[in-house]
Design goal:
The chain has 358 residues and is an alpha/beta fold. The chain is 46% helix and 13% strand. The chain is built from 14 helices and nine strands. Strands 5-4-3-6-7-8-9 form a seven-stranded parallel beta sheet, sandwiched between helices. Strands 1-2 form a two-stranded antiparallel sheet. β7, α11 and β8 form a beta-alpha-beta unit. α5 packs across α13 and α9 (198-218) runs parallel beside α11 (254-276). Belongs to the short-chain dehydrogenases/reductases (SDR) family. It comes from Neurospora intermedia.
């Protein structure tokens, strides 16, 4: 019978061969165990044992990536926001309300901020029911630094951190006619138009761009505190921009589209500079296409929901319909939950940019 020699007496090449053989055997055993556990379990209900989840790894040279259990891949885990605190600006109607519902239904405590206290209170009255989280109204004007500072102080007095900030507050701008037959007519439409003013441009930028900058920077300490309190999580900001900032057409409102383009670029600058400062806070934005809101539909119903007829867009872009609450909710939850997305702008437009040739 041949006795095994200690590996220190073997040639280097032999030791290497033994190491490779043992690694392959371990990996084969792990894969076999993993496959057996998966094949014998019920896909929709059963998760892998925690011990198996901890031990199963996929070898990638000197690095390894943990395998996720069934429970971690379940929808209830992927988008579970229990214990998270959120703030949504402009949360009383439109996309802000869609985001508020999505977060609260999935367990987050959601503060909504805006200038119209009546609308905020109505959201609490109507929608703070049958949710796993909670909706709380706080009146504030996010175009004023003193109101933003007061909002930070109020959240600090109630919470130890802020996990999610959705900068949704926004306004439209005065419209202009771009169709013209000669330069004099176009000049008249764009310059002589009494609605084309510096104040219009300034106010649009103040709300759609500057408020994002000041809100995000003011809440950095609370956002970083969320990262430090919740392992595997990073404080996150979702800025609501628009595909109007990505298309070449002015769509009859230059100042609005220019402000949304600025918001897209501001999103990327904030993400880069915050990361360079060593903070683990993710900054992303959503560029919605046509969604029902008081801006697009010019009104809302008794539930503070707006409506756009589907047939109005049947022949205009691939989706052949305006966006729905569910479309926006899925986008918000994706950017909030996915810890591997940072500095991006997600277009949720039903193919509008495709139809526009972009």
């Amino acid at each position: 019978m041949i006795q095994s020699l200690p590996t220190r007496f073997l040639r280097p090449s032999t030791r290497t061969l033994l190491s490779i053989t043992r690694t392959r055997a371990i990996n084969t055993t792990a894969r076999t165990t993993l496959a057996t556990a998966i094949s014998s379990s019920k896909p929709s209900r059963t998760s892998l044992p925690s011990s198996l989840h901890q031990s199963c790894t996929m070898s990638t040279g000197t690095k390894s990536a943990s395998a996720a259990s069934h429970a971690e891949l379940n929808r209830n885990s992927l988008f579970n926001l229990a214990g998270r605190v959120a703030l949504v600006t402009g949360g009383g109607t439109g996309i802000g309300l869609m985001a508020t519902q999505a977060l609260a239904v999935n367990g987050a405590k959601v503060y909504i901020a805006g200038r119209n206290k009546e609308k905020l209170d109505k959201v609490v009255e109507i929608y703070n029911k049958d949710v796993e989280g909670e909706i709380i109204a706080l009146q504030a004007d996010v175009t004023k630094k003193e109101d933003i500072a007061a909002l930070v102080k109020e959240i600090e007095s109630r919470e130890k951190c802020l996990c999610i900030l959705v900068n949704n507050a926004g306004i439209s701008s005065s419209s202009v006619t771009t169709e013209a037959s000669d330069p004099k007519e176009l000049k008249h439409n764009l310059f002589d138009n009494e609605n084309a003013t510096f104040d219009d441009w300034t106010e649009t930028y103040r709300t759609n761009v500057a408020s994002i900058y000041f809100m995000t920077s003011a809440f950095l300490p609370l956002l970083q505190a969320s990262t430090e309190r919740h392992p595997g999580w990073s404080g996150t900001v979702v800025n609501i921009s628009s595909i109007s900032g990505q298309v070449k057409s002015a769509q009859h409102h230059f100042s609005y589209n220019a402000s949304k383009a600025a918001a897209v670029h501001l999103n990327r600058m904030l993400a880069a500079e915050i990361a360079n400062a060593g903070l683990k806070i993710r900054i992303n934005s959503i560029a919605p296409g046509v969604f029902p809101s008081e801006m697009t539909a010019e009104e809302s119903d008794e539930f503070q929901k707006s409506h756009i007829p589907k047939e109005k867009y049947e022949d205009k872009f691939p989706s052949a319909r305006p966006g729905r609450d569910i479309d926006m909710a899925q986008a918000v939850l994706a950017l909030v939950s996915n810890q591997f997305i940072n500095g991006e702008t997600l277009a949720v437009d039903g193919g509008y940019k495709l139809a526009a040739g972009l």
